[in-house]
Amino acid sequence: MSSENYKAFFRCVSGCGEEYPLYEIVYNCKKCGSLLEVAHDIERLKEKSADEWINLFNSRVGTVKWPYGSGVWSKKEFICPSVDNENIVSLSEGNTNLYWAKRLGEILGMNDLWVKMCGNSHTGSFKDLGMTVLVTMVNEIMKRGKSIDAVACASTGDTSAALAAYCANAGIPTIVFLPRNKISTAQLVQPMANGAIVLSLDTNFDGCMKIVQEITKEKTLYLANSMNSLRIEGQKSISFEIVQQFEWEVPDVIIIPGGNLGNVSAIGNGFKMMLDLGLINKKPRLILAQAEKANPLYQSYLNGFKEFKPVVPGNTLASAIQIGNPVSVKKAIKVLQEFDGIVEQATEEELCNATALADRTGLYCCPHTGVALAVLIKLVEKQIISKSDRTIVISTAHGLKFSEFKVDYHESMIEGVISKYANKPIELPPDVDKVIDVLGKELKDRKRL
Question: Terminus-to-terminus CA distance in the chain, angstroms?
Answer without folding.
Answer: 54
